[in-house]
Amino acid sequence: MPGTTGPMGLGTVYYRPLVYYSVLPGHVLTGDYVLIPGDYRTARRLIYSGRDSMASADVVTPLGYVDVPRAGVTVRGTTLVGGWAIDNASVGRVDVYVDSTKVGQAQYGVPRPDVQHSYVGAPTNVGYRFLWDTRLVGNGEHTIQVRVTDINGNVALFKRVMVTVSN
């Protein structure tokens, strides 16, 4: 419905999250739908009075990407593992895994203003970086995976990146 939004406005606002939900094994995602037939002013009054008393657990996992290294490249020596991660609450930590073994925690908070072009309203400092010493693994193919945990314990595993180490 067109018009001004807010508690006293006539407009209607539709909300769609900018991130996808993912549910870890052993967890359950539940939700409630509320249908209030009748006058919109009555519906808004009921919703605004009840929203503060509703328990709302954060079920949104972080979203992001591994930018470097790119899949299929050959790396040697100290190699940068970097990308970006955003969350509806806040990113708590970014861990880097090689062949399913944690090799360290990335520095989070690197400026990435380019992310705001695709995700309007995202903070600027959402980049992460980790210097991986490839000499600690043997030559050959290896898999890099980034695991991001938000401050509420939600975990996202970013897409694996296959690289070849040649030292």
Q: Give the overall form.
A: elongated
Number of strands: 10
CATH topology label of the domain at 63-165: Immunoglobulin-like
Rg, please? 21 Å
> Treating each run of at least 4 consecutive H or I residues as one helix, how many helices?
2
Order of helices and strands: HEEEEEEHEEEE
Mean pLDDT: 83
Distance between the termini: 63 Å
- The proportion of strand residues reads 35-45%
The largest pleated sheet is described as: 6 strands, mixed
Q: What CATH architecture label of the domain at 63-165 applies?
A: Sandwich
Query: Pairing-aware structural class of the strands and helices?
Result: mainly beta
Your description of this structure?
By secondary structure, the protein is mainly beta. The chain is 9% helix and 36% strand. Strands 2, 4, 5, 8, 9 and 10 form a six-stranded mixed sheet that branches. The protein has a four-stranded antiparallel sheet with strand order 1-3-7-6, with no helix packed on it. Strand 4 and strand 5 form a beta hairpin. The N and C termini lie far apart (63 Å).
Give a quick set of tags describing it.
about 170 residues; mainly beta; Immunoglobulin-like; 6-stranded mixed beta sheet; 4-stranded antiparallel beta sheet; 2 helices; 10 strands
What's the arrangement of secondary structure elements?
Elements: H1 40-50, E1 63-68, E2 74-75, E3 78-86, E4 91-98, E5 101-105, E6 107-110, H2 115-118, E7 127-133, E8 140-150, E9 155-157, E10 161-165
Parallel strand pairs: 2-10
Antiparallel strand pairs: 1-3, 3-7, 4-5, 4-8, 6-7, 8-9, 8-10
